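FW: tagging you since you asked about this chain on Friday. Here's the raw sequence from the shared folder, copied in full. Didn't touch anything.
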Amino acid sequence: MRDTKAGLTATIIFQASSANYGESLGNVASLKKLTRGDGQQYTYISRQALRYNIVQELGTPEANLSAEGSGDKKVIQFAKDSSIKDFPEIDFFGYMKTEKGNNSDIRSAKIRLSNAISQEPYAGDMDFLTNMGLAQRIRKAEKDNSINNSIAQSEIQESYYRYTITIDLDKIGIDENDGTNLDDQEKNRRIAQLLTTIQYLYRDIRGRREDLKPLFIVGGVYDIKNPIFENAVKVKDNIIDIDAINSILEDPMIKNDTEIGLVDGIFANNEAIIKDLNAVSVVKFMNDLKKKVADFYEVESN
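HL: got it, structure written out here
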């Protein structure tokens, strides 16, 4: 591995429907939302939800947990014997291990996610739900027509969403708390596996499987660790804002290390994205990104 700082960052657009709910109010399930200065509300999928799905779909063993403390004040945390050697989950997303009377062992996240923010405002759409089928069955089985249907409502939205992932490549596989430093081949394998997971990410929610795979992705491996495109990638009226991205690419140091991936035929300005941003397929983007990661670790790409 080269003796230098390196950050991988990618900003992703995907399309999904009603993929993260917050607290219910009575019989109404509310989507997670935030309000912008324009007065519009935008739904979001929290970074914790994205992290959960990534960990679930990585296909690696989940780190051991423990409950520390007593009574109602027990805190769930990663077990003392959980090491990044065995569990990519805590290698990627960090940990805090506390023990009464001793200092805490803390390892910050080396992979950071933003919330996935909808690119279209929430318009107040609701889904009206009943259990009519089950209610009819039990009324018939028990010969009791007084059993009523249950009624519920859910906020719903179909939208494009944007999120950014940023990875400290030079910190993966290293834990100063216990002196761990994995070999570069294993570091590369873990990041390649993560990128494949993101390429085909999905989310199971309320009986649905929502597809979170990238329809548009921009990023690369850089000597800086800024989430470069986080605030520059925007979608409006099914159009990717090319001008905002090009303004970032005016810096040749960024442009030379940047690639754009696109699922063909989705966005209204599809041809302009290909022509002006030299977009390739998402599959090629991911394969090229894996090659850049392997080059950083100075190993053969998988």
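FW: The chain has eight helices and 23 strands.
HL: agreed, and The longest strand covers residues 7-17.
FW: great, closing this out.
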